[in-house]
Amino acid sequence: MSVVKPPIGQSSAITQLQAAITQNRLAPAYLFTGFDGVGRKLAAQWLSQQLLCHQDVPHPDILWIEPTFTKDGHQYTHSEAERNGLAAKSRSQIRIDQIRQIITLLQQPPLLASRSLVVIDGAETMTEAAANALLKILEEPGRATLILITPTSNHLLPTIRSRCQTIHFKRLPFELLTQVIQESCPELLKHPDLIRFAQGSPGRAIAAWKNAQQIPTTIIHMLNRSDRPIWDCLSLSQQIQALDFSLQLWLLNFLQFQSWQQSRCSKIFHQFEQTRTYLSRHCQAQLVWDWLLTSLPKTQWQLPAIMESPCQHLSSQMALLPESEVATKSVSVVQQPTAEPSTGFGGRQTDLFEAIALNK
Please, what are the averages of pLDDT over each run of 10 residues along the chain (360 residues)? Predict the structure, then answer.
């Protein structure tokens, strides 16, 4: 592993962690909160190098836990699924078997370092059994530091939150966001809608770039039409439901964002929220999309048709998830005010829009 630099634009969080290291006053557990794609995972990687002084992976005293989904009786993370060409048709969760891996690690003394390090990415997706098992670990972590990565602490048990020190990661200001994009994926600057959709998250911008390339052109052309007959809406929903589940959710979020930007209509906003709820409850996806698209036949979206184009991998800020951010002269993008996330899917927040309350 090459030397990991701290994330751009997160000086407050890094200062807190550096002070804890310098003073030898590390907390047993940390809660890294903030918007996806702003550098929480990178900060965890940076902290692991600071604590364990390692350059090579895997390190025997590090355990990284990610949500998994089940397919044909096997569990896969999103990165594993991507490598194996698998499509996730269900939401991902952190399961009790994964928490038991932490117990097994912490039952043994560290092999190469003075302490073990456990990172739980997507902690908000823990099942109830997994959360209860983790609580017992947090009560007596031993010679270990645990890092829980989540958009917000609200989806975690209060007893878990009370045992963690919270470090908040902010969205990047517009200048830093475009600086990172310029360095890693300058072609993205030609698509201001994707940059606005990122809402201060470089990881989200790069993920949007990648996701937009995966949407078939037939779907893009139909969504970008100003008037769709009902039979076209039904055909469109059939094509969308065949997409990877996470890609469907991204498309839903992007269409909702554009709809809100165009109309500021709370009724349409809530239609998208209801659609997300139906999908999260594993309703038949095609029927859900039928309901949404036939109710909005005249809505014209502007989904960019992007040909596959290589961009420098933004591991330094994105780290996905499937986690994982100096304005330029290439394009003029109006900075949008950002807001804290307000909605969630399976515990994972879907960003969105502060102003819904203004229409109530």
Answer: 82 95 94 94 92 73 91 80 72 92 93 92 95 95 94 93 96 90 88 91 92 93 91 95 92 95 92 94 93 91 74 45 30 33 35 39
Structural domain boundaries of the chain? 11-169, 174-359
Q: Can you identify the CATH homologous superfamily of domain 11-169?
A: P-loop containing nucleotide triphosphate hydrolases (3.40.50.300)
166 is written with which tokens? Answer: 């919270």
Residue 76: phi and psi, rounded to 5, are: -135, 140
**What residue ranges in 87-143 does DSSP mark as E strands?**
116-121
Task: Give yes or no for a contact between 246 and 214, defined as CB atoms under 8 angstroms apart.
Answer: no
d(CA 194, CA 188): 8
pLDDT of residue 220: 94
Integer Cα distance of 36 and 151 in angstroms: 6
Report helix, strand or coil for 141.
coil
In terms of Cα–Cα distance, which of 306, 325, 300 is closest to 315?
Answer: 325
- Judged on CB neighbours under 10 Å (0-12, 13-18, 19+), 211 is buried
Instruction: Report whether 358 contacts 263 (CB < 8 A).
Output: no
Cis status of the peptide bond prior to 304, with omega within 30 of 0: no
- Indicate the length of the chain as a whole number: 360
Distance CA 260, CA 311 (A): 29
In the prediction, which pLDDT does 307 show?
A: 60
pLDDT at 52: 83
Structure confidence at residue 53 (pLDDT): 75
pLDDT for residue 320? 35
Answer for the pair 89, 242: CB distance below 8 angstroms, yes or no. no
Q: Tokens for 69, please give them.
A: 């989904």
The pLDDT, as a whole number, for residue 54 is: 61
